[in-house]
Specification:
mainly beta
Length: 153
C-alpha cells in the first residue's frame, strides 16, 4: 500500500509540474497584451420600473382602434374629473386614440379606445406591458353616480 501511495504522489507531482524535458515554450506570433484594467462598479444600473403610470393624452388619429378596459378609475378635482389607469403597450405601436364619456343621472360610462399610431406603419413593435393613465373632464361632479367601464359590455 505504501508503494501505491508513493507512486500516486509522484504521478500527481509530475502532472502539475511545468516545463520538463519534453515541454517547450509555444511559439507566439503576437506580443503579450497588458491586462485589462477597469474601475469598480459603484452602483448597479436601475432596472426598476418608472414611478407610477405614464400619463398620456388622446391622439385622435390611431388606426385599428379597439375598446380597452381600464383597471382603476379615481375621481379628482372634487369629482369634476376622473383619472383612469390601464395596461397598454409601447407607443407608437399602442396609443390612446380617444375617450368616450356618457353621463346619466345614475352612472358615468367611460370607454377608452386604443390603436396604433400611423407612425408605427413600418415599425417592429415589442410586446411589453406599460401602465398608462389619463384624466377626463365630467360635465358635472361625479357625486354618488357609479363609474362604469364601457369596454366591459
Amino acid at each position: 500500500m505504501t508503494a501505491t501511495l508513493l507512486a500516486g504522489l509522484v504521478l500527481a507531482a509530475g502532472c502539475g509540474a511545468q516545463g520538463g524535458p519534453s515541454a517547450e515554450p509555444a511559439a507566439s506570433s503576437t506580443t503579450e497584451r497588458p491586462p485589462v484594467v477597469s474601475s469598480p462598479v459603484t452602483s448597479a444600473p436601475s432596472t426598476a420600473p418608472p414611478n407610477g403610470p405614464e400619463t398620456v393624452k388622446p391622439v385622435g388619429d390611431a388606426v385599428n382602434v379597439r375598446e380597452v378596459r381600464w383597471t382603476k378609475a379615481e375621481p379628482v378635482s372634487d369629482g369634476r374629473k376622473v383619472r383612469l389607469t390601464w395596461w397598454s403597450g409601447v407607443a407608437p405601436c399602442t396609443v390612446l386614440d380617444r375617450v368616450s364619456v356618457k353621463e346619466t343621472a345614475k352612472d358615468v360610462t367611460i370607454t377608452l379606445y386604443e390603436g396604433a399610431s400611423p407612425k408605427a406603419k413600418d415599425m417592429s413593435c415589442i410586446m411589453i406591458a406599460v401602465e398608462k393613465t389619463t384624466t377626463v373632464d365630467l360635465d358635472k361632479a361625479l357625486g354618488k353616480r357609479k363609474l362604469v367601464d364601457g369596454a366591459k359590455r
